[in-house]
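Deviation from plan, reported transparently: 1-O-alpha-D-glucopyranosyl-D-fructose complex.
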Amino acid sequence: PRERDWFRSAVVYQVYPRSFADSNDDGVGDLRGIIGKLDYLERLGVDVVWLSPVYRSPHDDNGYDISDYQDIDPLFGSLDDLDDLIAGLHGRGMKLVMDLVVNHTSDEHPWFVESRASKDSPKRDWYWWRPARSGFVPGEPGGEPNNWESFFSGPAWELDEASGEYYLHLFSRKQPDLNWENPEVRESVYEMMRWWLDRGVDGFRMDVINFISKDPALPDGPVRDGRPYADGTASFISGPRIHEYLREMHEQVFAGREEALLTVGEMPGVTVEDAVLFTDPARREVDMVFQFEHVGLDHDGSKWNPTKLRLTDLKASLGRWQAGLAERGWNSLYWGNHDQPRVVSRFGDESPEYRELSAKMLAGVLHLHRGTPYVYQGEELGMTNMPFATIDDYRDIEVLNHFREATELLGEDPAVVLAALAPLNRDNARTPVQWDAGPNAGFTRGTPWIGVNPNSGAVNAEEQISREDSVFTFYRTLIRLRHELPVIAHGDFTMLLPDDEEVYAYIRRHEDHELLVLGNFSAHPRIAEVADPLWADARRLLGNYPDAHGLALRPWEFTALLRP
Ligand code: TEU
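Because the crystal trials were delayed, the predicted structure below was used instead.
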């Protein structure tokens, strides 16, 4: 295959449309709002915008439950607005990647409505319908076809009273899973994808795409301690036909036009070994995957049991991914997205004293790895987690379902549950982008659908853009450096100091250039114990303090040294 490597020097920016910018004052972000911020994105310098779902949807899961793949939800605008967005991005040399959510549809999608209509429906087999477990009456406790738990709490099965059968939903009961075993399902999805490419979109971010192939036996999974339902993931994480499906999709959708496109598969539970196969260009599956290992290190079992990150674990994990995809395949690099908390609150220090320093340090450490970096909206401003006060402040189905189950079904103390869900819940990253210090942070003149972070007076784009030493300017520089320096886009990677609990250190090499990257993940001064002392005299390429300081690191210091 031809070498397609433009995306190795590219940076992707994720827009979560609901929370980006509201043009019509209904409190929800929209396409016209994004169009109004294209100059901002151009100034930041990103190459690609990944847009979270804007399709028609009942919004049970903020648009990840789609009822029409080929129309825009009126909440966000119209197809004409999307065409304008594409034209606006292309006119500025940027690309648009759409979210592709085809593991499941909404239960209000016509395909599911037809599937549910009767056991003889021609679309019955488009979803996973099963009778009650043998010996059980439909609807009685334990009657579900297997013991799997949904990702959003409760059983992964919903009874349809009319037919007496259950359908599978790995996520909410309003997100029935499509049956990819059925070739008509696959052909319909490919046709829809071709339609979007013909319209001008430049690729897809594929939602939980390594879940689409399931073991058709749907066997019971291992029961988890103290949980009412079990873990079914062994039957669908990178399931039996996943590589076949992705290669078929490539053949049917991308072949012949892949040169200019970007594809990234979101893959919870994917291993390095699988990722090599998914992203080896010769296999023609996807360009890169979102893996989850490094965002799983600061909790135990579930995200509702947060623990403290050990930096040595983070380095071991990311270092293994760098090594594993060094020869074949390609990494994506991310700290945050709409499902993860804000990184400065998570791995940095959100206090006023260190917020900017640590946000820049985290950015520098991530972006200088080998791989394609993703910036989640607001990350470039150093936005922090949201101090939600009560459960009524939350909007996300995942956190609301968990709270209800924990307090009502399992009888846990509401105050304890509330405290435990604060650090890692998804709504942390879904508060409106802070544009200025005015009312509602300049996001809307109406009532925002979710609260605005109270720190918008200090943390906002207008202030960030005005300053040369801001987090925004730092991101801008990192993006420019990736475009300009081959050692960043193409260099190899060597992790250093694997046992140091505070200093993140690695070397990139390309031809005769060498880059040493150092990040102090602590608030105390540290000397980076790098073996080669000549580094102390190397030129500083970038840092988050005004002056260079060799290998001596101040609190949360980031420094990148280049030689010759
Ligand atoms: O997320 C997939 C996923 O497995 C998790 O990150 C999940 O959202 C949750 O955080 C587990 O604790 C994708 C989307 O990014 C997410 O927004 C959707 O809710 C989900 O798929 C279903 O479409």
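The chain is about 25% helix and 15% strand. We consider this an acceptable substitute for the interim report.
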